[in-house]
Amino acid sequence: MIFEDESLALLEAALPVLATGFSSLPPSQTAPLDRAAMLAVLELAATRLHENYPYFHPLYAGQMLKPPHPIARAAYALAMWINPNNHALDGGRVSSQMEIEAVHALASMVGWSTHLGHLTSGGTFANLEALWIAGQLAPGKTILASEQAHYTHHRICGVLQLAFDSVAVDIRGRMSLAALEARLQQGDVGTVVVTLGTTALGAIDPLPQILALCEKYGFRIHVDAAYGGYFTLASNLGPEAIAAYEALAQVDSIVIDPHKHGLQPYGCGCVLFQDPSVGRFYKHNSPYTYFTSNELHLGEITLECSRAGAAAVALWATQRLLPLTRSGEFAGMLESCHAAAAELYRRLNASPYFIAPINPQLDIVVWAIRGANVEESSVHARAIFDAAARKDLHLALVQLPCEFFPLDTWPASHSANPEALNAKHVTCLRSVLMKPEHFAWLNAIWDRLQSAAEEVLKR
Asked: Is CATH 3.50.50.60 what the domain over 329-457 is classified as, yes or no?
C-alpha cells in the first residue's frame, strides 16, 4: 500500500485505553451515523484529493512539505475524540500540560533552561508574537531583516505598525555584515531578525558575528528558525552553520516550526522567549476563562485564543518517541537530509546541464540551467520543471539574483551588459530534501532529473 496504515491499528488499540479514563460517566445519547452517506462523502473527498502533488512521497522534492510521523497522526487523531482547546485549563487540562512539556523540550534543545513559550498555529503567527514583543520593548525602533528573510517579517511589521528595513545579502544569500553595520550606524534599530535557514536557499545568517555587533550597537536579536531550527541537533553541517547554532542560546527570541522538520501536521509553530518576564505584555483579564485554577493558563501568554490541544498531544507524543537529542534517531533524520542535499549539489556541479552556485548549508539545493543568456536559462528551467513532473519528480521554481552566480554562467548576457545582468533575476530549480528517505531515493531523483534535462536541452 502506498500510504502507511499501521498507525490506524495503533489508534484502534489506543482508543479503548482513552475511554477507560471516562468509564464512570453514564452513556450519552449520540445521533446514529449514516455510514453509507458518510462513506460516500469521504470517497468523494478522497477522489478530489487525487489532484494534489504526492507531498508524502520521496519523489516530491519541491516545497517544504513533509509528512507527519505516524505517531503524530495517531496521537492527533486520538486527542480529537476529546478535542481539547489549549486556550485555558478548562478546555485543555492535560493537553496544556503536554504543551508545556513539549515546548520545554524545544527550549532545552536550543540551550535554554528558563524561558517563556508556547505553540502557535504556525511560524507566521509565532513571528508576529516575537515582533510584537520586540515593538513593546523598543517602541519606535526599526526592525531589520535580510533581503532573503521570509517576506512575512515586512508584512507583520506593517500590521503592527513597526518601522522595517531590509539588509542586503552576500552572494551566498546570508545577511551582509558590512551592510548590517552600515545600517546600525543610523542608531534607530531595536531588533535584528536573524534567519537560520532561509526558505529560498536554506542560508544561515552569521549569528556569531551579529552577536558581536549587538555588543557594539545594543539591539535585540530575534532568530527566525521556523524552517532550520531543528538542525541544531545535526552533527554533519559545515563549520559556519555549526557556529551559528552553537550561539543560538544567546539570542532574545526564537521561532521554530514543528510542522516543518518536527514531523507534525499543520499547523504547529512555536515561539520562545529567553526572558520569561516578557509575559507581562500578555497580561489581560477574562470574565470567565482563568478562574478555575491558580496554575498558568497558556491563554495568558499567547495572542491567539482557541488553539488545538491535539497539536500539543501530537508533538508531545513524537518527542516522547523520538527525543530531541544529538546522535539520536531524530537527529539522524536531519543528518540524512543534509547529506542528500550535499550529494545532489555535487552531482549538479558535475553535470554539463546545471550549475549550483551555493553549497547547501541545510537541505535546500538551488540550481540554474546552463545557457547562452539568462532568458534562455529561465525558459529551460520551466521546461525541465514540467518534464520532470511528467516523470513523477516534483521540484520547485525560484527566482534568484544573477549576482549569486559566477560571471561566466551566461556569457552572452554578461558580454552584452554586465551591469544589467547584476540587476536581473533568473528562474532556477529548487529542491527541498527534507524527508529522511530522500538520501536513499537520490539515484531515482537524479535519473529523472537528468532525463528531463536531456529531453528539453537536446530538442
From this structure: no
